[in-house]
Amino acid sequence: MAPTPPLSLPVSPRHPKETVNQWAYRSLRQAVMVGLIPPGRSLTIRDVAAALAVSTMPVREALRRLASEQALEVQDNRRIQVPQMTVAKFRELCELRIALECHAAERALPYVTPARIDQLTQIDRRIDEAQAAGDREGVTIHNQDFHRHLYEANPHQVIMPLVESVWLQLGPFTRLALSKLNDFYHVDRHSEALAALKKHDLLALRIALEADIRDGITHVGTAELLSAYVENAGMVG
Amino acid sequence: MAPTPPLSLPVSPRHPKETVNQWAYRSLRQAVMVGLIPPGRSLTIRDVAAALAVSTMPVREALRRLASEQALEVQDNRRIQVPQMTVAKFRELCELRIALECHAAERALPYVTPARIDQLTQIDRRIDEAQAAGDREGVTIHNQDFHRHLYEANPHQVIMPLVESVWLQLGPFTRLALSKLNDFYHVDRHSEALAALKKHDLLALRIALEADIRDGITHVGTAELLSAYVENAGMVG
DNA sequence: ACGGGTTAAACGTGATCACATTTTACGGGA
DNA sequence: TCCCGTAAAATGTGATCACGTTTAACCCGT
Question: Which SUPFAM superfamilies match (chains A, B) (predicted)?
């Protein structure tokens, strides 16, 4: 077996006023979210620090934070890796996402203003543009923006951090769903959600959201695709 | 106004094989959970490190982790404190807890065995004993054990970390609910839940759980108690 | 050629130090 | 007496180092 490659991370430019810690966290998070780090690949603090050209300290804090958000997994208190995915776990995460986000939408609905609906419509347009351009990462980002912007209509925000954690756990594997999704015609669930928002129709909103999430995700669980990827990833470590 | 007291933390004994980091995290978490650190009280890394008689490094990692779990709040990138509670936020957390835990129970139900029901019954007995002994902290701990042990029947666990985060955010304020609760006769929702488990009756389980959570929590939200505490705590900082 | 034991490299952890930024305290001017 | 500006103390951040443990490599014996 070939020795593990030296771990190259895409270094996004560091924002001004951003601490090294935040930058390392952001970089690693992004890498995990888009599936750049294969599950089972063991990360060492020193390696990541070298890849980012910083000292070990900010890196280990970033790694630990991601671990506490379930994005990474500390194996036996030694190795750190992206958790392995199983079909059952994937299903659990999918159902959790639906329950959590439907609840978030319900709690946000009373605070949704016409102005926010306009903003959501704009974001939805950006999703379509990215989809048309074949920009999968853009689709993911804008799709998350759409959901986030809906739930954050609620000014007493407590749910989003949990939602983000679930997104992070599903992240490495949703990229697959999107690639599959492009092949099919796919009804625009966001339009349905927007219509429900305009009518303040909670039930219709829940239905649209659940369908949207299932569209983006469940195909993977039912298809042989995930299994293949899971097994493949399992061999990488 | 009196100068802020020098922050004394109850130092639980350090487990063998436990890193300083883990110990600091556990100590701080416990302190937050039982409401020992008043909301608004600003914590400094050096102070906590001094109180625990360790260096600053493990402490800042513990603090950051608690912040990422929403147990603490980094104010303007300088001050760290237990977040202030508002009535609206409290309600959001309560509703979130219900939604999350009912979902967790639903996903766990198919895996609940008679053996586990027995264990749950034993834990429930311990709750009653603590209640009879007036041991509020014991009640809290065993109550959490009960819920955790139910949800963890599901072997593909992804929900508990989120539940723990919500518990942690409610923790500093539930102690009030319990003190109030002792004054009233209070139907044993856990018995109802156990009965529902034995019948594999999902709906009854959800109803019992929701009632249990509301019993333990919502009284605070409706009573003037929380408001009083919130305002009081707001003046502490 | 294969396996086990020894040794060296690698790693996580935690302490200490230096530096930049922020907060606090003090004192002078209106 | 009340601001406000300046200086000193305090704080977070990040780098470096030392130590104990774990992992990996290597060599010798069979």
Answer: GntR ligand-binding domain-like (SSF48008), Winged helix' DNA-binding domain (SSF46785)
Secondary structure of chain A: what % helix, strand, coil (to 5)? Answer: 70, 5, 30
Yes or no: is domain B87-223 CATH 1.20.120.530?
yes
Asked if A11 and A49 touch (Cβ cutoff 8 Å), the reply is no
**Is-contact A162 B165, C-beta < 8 A?**
yes
CA distance A92 to A81: 20
Summary mean pLDDT of chain A? 83
Q: How many CA atoms lie within 13 A of B115 on its CB side?
A: 2
pLDDT at B2: 41
Report how far residue A121's alpha carbon sits from residue A195's, in angstroms, rounded to the nearest whole number: 10
Q: Provide residues 143-162 of A with CB closer than 7 Å to any strand D atom.
A: none
For residue range A177-219, list pLDDT tens digits in order: 555 555 555 667 888 888 888 888 888 889 888 888 887 765 5
User: Whole-angstrom Cα distance, residue A120 to residue A33?
Assistant: 23
CA of A1 to C1' of D2 (A): 77
What pLDDT digit, counting tens, does each position of B79-118 carry? 899 998 888 898 899 999 999 999 999 999 999 999 999 9
Instruction: Look at B92 and A107 and tell me if their CB atoms are within 8 Å.
Output: yes
Nearest CB among B68, B69, B156 relative to A89 is that of B156
> How far, in Å, CA of A120 to CA of A190, rounded?
9
Interface probe, candidates B158, B164, B217, chain A, greatest A C-beta count within 10 A = B158
Q: Do A92 and B156 touch (CB under 8 A)?
A: yes
Which among A65, A100, A156 has CB closest to B65? A65
- Contact call for residues B174 and B97 (beta carbons, < 8 A): no
Task: Indicate the CATH number for domain A20-83.
Answer: 1.10.10.10
Please report, for chain A, the start and end positions of each structural domain, with discontinuous segments joined by +.
Answer: 20-83, 87-223
The pLDDT value recorded for residue A218 is: 59
Q: What is the pLDDT of residues A121-145, one digit of tens each?
A: 999 989 888 888 878 788 888 989 9
